[in-house]
Amino acid sequence: MKKTDPYAALRFREFNIFLLVRFAMVFAWTMQFVVIEWEVYSLTKDPLSLGIIGLMEVIPAVAMALFAGHIVDQSEKRGLLIKCIFGFSVVSLGLFLLTWPRIVAGLSTDLVLYLVYFLVFLGGIVRAFLGPTIFSLFSLLVPKKIYPNAATWSSSVWQMGAVVGPAAGGFFIHWIGVHWSMCFVFAFSLMALMLLLQIPKKPILNPNIGEPIMKSLKEGIKFVKNTRVILGALTLDMFAVLFGGAVALLPIYAQDILKVGPEGFGILRAAPAVGALLIMFTSAHFPLNKNAGMKLLAAIFGFGVCIIVFGLSTWFWVSVIALFLSGVTDGISMIIRQTILQLRTPDAMRGRVASVNSMFVGSSNELGAFESGLTAKLMGTVTAVVFGGGMTILTVLGTGFFFPKLRKLDLRKDLEEHEKQ
């Protein structure tokens, strides 16, 4: 096989615009989540309130996921993404207003919290459509033969936004306060909207336009169920994220355990994404396709170990290093999983498969936040984090046993087939 061009996907102008849009949205979304986490915990000093934030987003994201996948497969992707970003902008504007002292001065703390939770709930609806739409639009911007390289760059940009967003959230809270930090989030969502307008409309590749929704949804679920490699990868990542959701408890670590304030909070929040970003840029030059299944299992096993170390640490820089290494292992997992999905999902089913993926993986971030908040309330913060890391390790062992095809997965044959197209 000829040497892989690490910059192949970047030679397509529309894909570069797509990367800028994705960065702006991830930056805005992650910064917003960090700012709201900080504000809610500052108001309540209750770890369960952090879990409720995740729960309020995951309920609509899961409930609407399959329906959203059907809509995405039936719709023009660029236009639908414009609607998603507009919806996010409305939510961000609402949170900006709710953090304005002049507006909330006469409101009770409970009412402010309920309104914040309501807007987060609306954001969950937007998220149900956003993920499948981005996944589907991605495949229309580059040739199939460079999907793995494009997936690496797309994941790298996602992680770059996840690095800068949380770090900016922590520092901006310190520099300009929660209210003006939310204004910054709103501005980035508008920038993403303006960038997206530079990509022209794309054709709808689904040959079954107008297909009954129940039939469409059943086909999507059946495809994932019968494709054992995809099912195994999604199951593995879902439980790893569900039990390894220590990031949701970072405000407690920053304020009460490590006592490092908003600046330290920003560093802790960004550390996993820095590690993931580093491994993603590296993988553009050194692909992870050989023995991908074993690399995926080993990466998530390492992720669980890092979470345990973080949970037990009382030293700030040990905690930072543990989170950084958790990001390295999580980055490996993300690249391999996204490559599997892009290579083995038919064009006509990308929206539905991405929706199932969001139910398995994307929503488990919020469920993980709720699980972490609940277990922290019941067990104590440190015990909850160590418990989550241990359950992640057990999940890896179980998945490796029950999904032998995933354990033996090698993506080089898939790449050879797509290069012939």
TrEMBL record:
Molecular function via GO: transmembrane transporter activity
Main subcellular localisation: membrane
Lineage: superkingdom: Bacteria
Keywords recorded for this protein, A-Z: Cell membrane, Membrane, Transmembrane, Transmembrane helix, Transport
Annotated Gene Ontology cellular component terms: plasma membrane
Annotated Major facilitator superfamily (MFS) profile domain residues: 9-407
Regions that span the bilayer: 15-36, 48-68, 80-100, 112-138, 150-173, 179-197, 229-254, 266-284, 296-325, 378-403
Keyword Metal-binding: no
Signal peptide start-end: none
Subcellular localization: Cell membrane
Membrane topology: Multi-pass membrane protein
UniProt xrefs under Pfam families: MFS_1
Similarity remark: Belongs to the major facilitator superfamily. Drug:H(+) antiporter-3 (DHA3) (TC 2.A.1.21) family.
Protein name, as recorded: Multidrug efflux pump Tap
Organism annotation: Aequorivita aquimaris
